[in-house]
Amino acid sequence: MNSKDLLKNFKSVPVDLMGVNDRIARIKSRSVKAEAKIQGLHMALNMIDLTTLEGADTPNKVRQLCYKAMHPHDQMNGIPTVAAVCVYPSLVRTAKEALKDSDVKVAAVSTYFPSGQSTLEIKLKETQYAIDEGADEIDMVISRREFLQGNYEYVLSEIISVKELCHKNNVRLKVILETGEIGSLDEVRKASDIALLANPDFIKTSTGKIGQAANMQVTLVMLQAIWDHYQKTGVQVGMKPAGGISDAKSALHYLIMVKEILGAEWLSNKWFRFGASRLANDVLMQLAKQESGVYQAPQYFSKD
C-alpha cells in the first residue's frame, strides 16, 4: 500500500496533557530496590547505543568507543555489553571490524542527518552506502520541513522508501522524529502515528543535535502511539529515546514506563534503546555502588 492510501483515513489521537503529566509523576514516585534495581541497571546498560557523531570523529576514536561497548568495565563481573555503536556512514566499516565476533550492532545515521534537508535520491544513496559498509541498523531522520508544512504524504513516502531498502538488506530501521522541532505533544503524536504507518522497527525521539532532546512526556506519548498501533495491526515497533538521559535513576523510570505501557515483551534491546552515551557511566557507577557499597569516582570510567 502506498503513502496516499495509508493516509486516506488518517486521524491522529489528541494528547491528554494532564493525564500524561499525572502518569509521569506517579512513575517518578516509584523506588526500585535491591535485586530489581541491579536487574534494571543491567538491562539499561544492555539497551544503550553508544554514539559518536562529530565532525572530528576519527577511526581511532571509533575503535575506542567500540572497545568500551564490548568492555564497559573490565573490573566488574557479569556486566553486559551495550546494544550498539552509532556512527556516521563513513566510519561504519571501522566499527564493524572493531566489533567483529561480538553481539554489539553497528548503527549508522542516514538520510542527511541531522537536518534531513536533501533529496530522496541522495538519502537512499547514503543509506545504501552505509548498508554496503556493513551497518546492521539505520537511524534515519524525517523531513521536518515537509511535516511542518503538512505534507504528510511526502514524509511517509520517504520513510517507506528507506524502510524497503533496509528490509531488503536485512537491516533494521529507526525513524527519528526530532521532536524538539515539530512542536506540541499533539504534533509528536501525529508524527509518531504517521511514521508507524510504515511499520519501521523503531521510532526515535531525537538526533541529539538540538537543545530539546528526549524527555518523559514525549517518550510516553510515543509509547502510547506504539501501543495503539500494535493493538490495531499486531505489528511490534520499538522505541528509542535519545539525548538528555544521563542518570541511572531516570533510566529506571523509563523502563518502568515501557513495562506499564507496552509490557515486558518490549524490555529487551531488540525493542527498546537509549540513545544516551553519558548514561553508561552513571549506570556503571550505580552498579559499582551496589557491588562494593561505595561509589567509584568518575575518573575510573572512560569518557568514550
What does this structure look like?
α6 packs parallel to α8 and α9 runs parallel beside α10. Helices cover 47% and strands 10% of the residues. The chain has a single domain, classed as Alpha-Beta Barrel (TIM Barrel). It has 304 residues and is α/β, with parallel strands linked by helices. The longest helix is centred in the last third of the chain and has 18 residues. It has 12 helices and 7 strands. The model has no long low-confidence stretch (mean pLDDT 94).
Short description:
The chain has 304 residues and is an alpha/beta fold. The protein has one domain (3-8, 33-300): TIM Barrel, CATH 3.20.20.70.
Secondary structure topology:
Elements: H1 3-6, H2 17-28, H3 34-45, E1 49-51, H4 59-70, E2 84-87, H5 92-98, E3 105-110, H6 120-133, E4 137-141, H7 144-148, H8 152-168, E5 172-176, H9 185-196, E6 202-204, H10 216-233, E7 238-240, H11 248-261, H12 277-292
Parallel strand pairs: 1-2, 2-3, 3-4, 4-5, 5-6, 6-7
Helix pairs in contact: 3-11, 3-12, 6-8, 9-10, 10-11
Task: Specify Rg, calculated over alpha carbons.
Answer: 19 Å
N- and C-termini, Cα separation: 43 Å
DSSP E strands, number: 7
- CATH class descriptor name: Alpha Beta
Low-confidence stretches: none
**Derived structural class:** alpha/beta
Characterize the main sheet: 7 strands, parallel
Q: Order of strands across the biggest sheet?
A: 1-2-3-4-5-6-7
- Integer average pLDDT: 94
From the 3D structure, determine the CATH topology: TIM Barrel
> What is the overall shape?
globular
CATH architecture descriptor? Alpha-Beta Barrel
Percentage of residues in strands:
5-15%
| Number of structural domains | 1
- Please name the fourth-level CATH homologous superfamily: Aldolase class I
The tally of helices reads 12
